[in-house]
Design goal:
By secondary structure, this protein is α/β, with parallel strands linked by helices. The chain folds into two domains: 149 residues, Aspartate Aminotransferase, domain 1; 264 residues, Type I PLP-dependent aspartate aminotransferase-like (Major domain) (Aspartate Aminotransferase, domain 2, 3-Layer(aba) Sandwich). The chain is built from 16 helices and 17 strands. The chain has a seven-stranded mixed sheet with strand order 2-10-9-8-7-3-4, sandwiched between helices. Strands 11-12-17-16 form a four-stranded antiparallel sheet, with helices on one face. A two-stranded parallel ribbon has the order 1-15. The longest helix is centred in the C-terminal third of the chain and has 24 residues. It is globular and about 65 Å long. The chain starts with 16 loop residues before the first helix and ends with a helix. The model has no long low-confidence stretch (mean pLDDT 95). Its cofactor is pyridoxal 5'-phosphate. Keywords: Aminotransferase, Pyridoxal phosphate, Transferase. Pathway: Amino-acid degradation; L-kynurenine degradation; kynurenate from L-kynurenine: step 1/2. Belongs to the class-I pyridoxal-phosphate-dependent aminotransferase family.
């Protein structure tokens, strides 16, 4: 066959960090602090709902195709939930689209709304799939960097020390700028934007008439201590004045109920933004797994009932049974604090996240030596370099060494930056703390070996 050229919008055809490091973790049977999934049981009420559904093979409404844009029971639950959290009337039929995971919700949003040459402001560090998806749609990703303010380093850094310079954002705007991607809470750093920060962004997008894709899949992952320190919790971008009209909100059941393998996500957007996305969806996957949608709908119905009873009575004891508002935040806070102490004991410097379930760790002060060589000499050996011979940031090499030689999987932070900013961020790794006690203990034993 004649040599054909694939779609060049994707740029370089190479495996993502998830393919490489997930494969490496499996090959080395590593303790996995790399991938963002809990290895603890999901809430039993969600799995019980799915069991009940599976016990009724005669139910056509469970076992066959459902409404293409989302099972009515789930879209109703989501419309009630987001009407509550956004403070607007979210239409079940026109504003809600259920997708195969948040990944596809993002892909639809970019593909449906970007034309060739449209520029998209991407606040970095950020999730690595945005740039290739934007490029595939014909768009041009334009990075804007969150800068780490280290003035408070003696007291310990947190994700709130990553600051967005609004003047830098302004400098990136051109007549071709069409969209801004906001990740809140941020993956990988765990930054939870304050109301003040979001209001500044809102003024900016209104000034330049931009569409906002607001990836809020970690919206429920807010430890109670964060709310006490900040005096506020999760502020959803579309809840700000005039912002619902220009925002595509991305959500995830996998993150909300700790069931990442179910791959159910959604978009919440007004009809004029949602319609092109829905038209794309109907000609792609068309339908999403019905039993999973129904089980998730029942999970949200359970939570909504608690919220509504609380509204009627004001009795805060009712919220203690809420997985989203109490059980999940408590568990996250406990495990976050545990991993932070482990990292400190191992001479790594954690940056404490306000939200999400990832924690950054600076390894630049690591004083490990082996056979007379210091750690930074060791990781520069060819066997820890790229298989393609690329000139990579140092954190890639450190992560490979840690996985191959110490059987601990993590993710390089520089993977979440555009190429020109990778080398500026090569002394930090991303870890996931939403792991079982046994996993965290194994990780601790490995990391403490690095002090010897």
């Amino acid at each position: 066959m004649t040599k054909r050229v694939p779609n060049t919008n994707f740029g370089e055809y190479k495996q993502s960090i998830w393919v490489e490091f997930t494969t490496l973790a499996a090959q080395t049977k590593a303790v996995n602090l790399g991938q963002g999934f809990p290895d603890t049981p999901c809430p039993s009420f969600v799995s019980d709902y799915l069991k009940e559904i599976a016990d009724h093979p005669e139910r056509i409404d469970y076992m066959q195709y459902t409404r293409g844009f989302g099972d009515p029971r789930l879209t109703l639950a989501l419309s009630k939930l987001y009407s509550r959290t956004l403070g607007v009337n979210v239409n079940q039929n026109n504003d809600v689209l259920v997708t195969v995971g948040a990944y596809l919700a993002l892909y639809y949003s970019f593909t449906a709304w970007l034309n060739k040459g449209d520029e998209v402001l991407v606040i970095e560090p950020t999730y690595d799939s945005y740039v290739p998806q934007i490029s595939a749609a014909g768009g041009v990703p334009v990075p804007v960097i969150l800068k780490l303010d280290k003035s408070n380093i003696k007291n310990g850094l947190s994700s709130s020390d990553f600051k967005l310079d609004m003047s830098a954002l302004e400098e990136k705007v051109t007549p071709k700028t069409k969209m801004l991607v906001l990740t809140n809470p941020n993956n990988p750093i765990g930054k939870l934007y304050s109301r003040k920060e979001l209001e500044e962004i809102a003024k900016f997008v209104e000034k330049h008439d931009l569409i906002v894709v607001s990836d809020e899949v970690y919206e429920w992952h807010i430890p109670h201590s964060t709310k006490k320190i900040k005096g506020e919790g999760m502020i959803r971008f579309a809840s700000l004045p005039n912002m619902y009209d220009r925002t595509i909100t991305i959500g995830s059941a996998g993150k909300a109920f700790s069931i990442t393998g179910w791959k159910i996500g959604w978009t919440i957007a007004p009809e004029h933004l949602s319609l092109p996305i829905r038209m794309l969806h109907q000609n792609c996957t068309f339908n999403v797994a019905t039993p999973l949608q129904v089980a998730i709908a029942r999970g949200f119905e359970k939570e909504l009932a608690l919220f509504e009873n609380y509204d009627k009575t004001g009795d805060e004891k009712l919220l203690k049974d809420s997985y989203l508002l109490n059980i999940l935040p408590q568990e996250l806070e406990s495990r976050r604090d545990e991993l932070a102490e482990i990292l400190k004991k191992a001479n790594l410097t954690p940056i404490i996240p306000e939200a999400g379930y990832f924690m950054l760790a600076d390894y630049s002060n690591l004083d490990f030596q082996e056979n007379g060589k210091k750690i930074f000499e060791i990781i520069n050996e060819p066997k820890y370099g790229s298989v393609n011979g690329e000139d990579e940031a140092l954190d890639y090499k450190f992560v490979r060494w840690l996985c191959i030689e110490r059987n601990l999987a993590t993710i390089p932070l520089s993977a979440f930056y555009s190429k020109e900013f990778k080398k500026d961020n090569e002394y930090t790794i991303r870890t996931c703390f939403f792991k079982s006690d046994s996993t965290l203990k194994k990780a601790e034993n490995i990391l403490l070996e690095l002090k010897k």
